[in-house]
Amino acid sequence: xxxxxxxxxYGYNALPSRPVYDWPGGKRLAVYVALNLExxxxxxxxxxxxxxxxxxxxxxxxxxxxxxNRVGAWRIRDLLDALAxxxxxxxxxxxxxxxxGLVEAFRARGDEIVAHGRTNAERQGVLDEAAERALIGEATxxxxxxxxxxxxxxxxxxxxQSHVTPDLLAEAGYRYLLDWAHDDQPVWLTTRGGGRILxxxxxxxxxxxxxxxxxxxxxxxxxxxxxxxxxxxxxxSQAAPLVMGIALHPYIVGQPHRLRPxxxxxxxxxxxxxxxxxxxxxxxxxxxxxxxxxx
Length: 295
Description:
The longest helix is centred in the first third of the chain and has 25 residues. By secondary structure, the protein is α/β, with parallel strands linked by helices. Strands 1, 2, 3, 8 and 9 form a 5-stranded parallel β-sheet that branches. Strands 4-5-7-6 form a 4-stranded mixed β-sheet. It has 10 helices and 9 strands.
């Protein structure tokens, strides 16, 4: 695809000018929780930092992240169970070997398993096309083998894409991706050869890494953001159907002092379940794909 002055994946289409449609049950606001289950390399590679890292091995930050898989993720599982909320679980494929039983615990809940690369110690967007294709293929094969079917959705580690990532994902059989945070509704992206892949909104504002790690928001600040966004989007959705995602990482919001305000925020959403569609990213993608009004 020759796009020297732009990405060429979608055109401009202002929200107020679009056709109005409904989510299942006549609801207008779809809400999903995206729980990132990630693994990292000891002594090398990328990783979020609680504090400025020193020379490798950076034990402080590695151990903080590892706590999320050993402790925090299980507390979030219990929280989701208590609120009867589904989730999309964004999985690094290496987790099956690094943390046996972790992904399986969320599978047992009936949660959607979404591909999230091999590990969050690397970015795919810096690879050449052959290497990126191999990364996608390896992660896809591992998830398919463990889950009994290929994943439908993809989020790149660190939201990293090359110029051909949507093309490679579509060619690998993916139906949707989460990397583009450019809209509050699903949008079709064009791919080479005349194909397309659906972009499902994924949050960068209601995301604990930009909020808590980057901006240093407090746990209560983050919880308040979730509640305020939900209340506002519930009102706004009367005029147009919307998608609200909430992106979580166990090593951040699984911490006890952050889990308590998160619980209250998610309970607020769950208390409105009669008026909103509590679903998964894949559920949104499946429903949206059958709506002709979505372009």
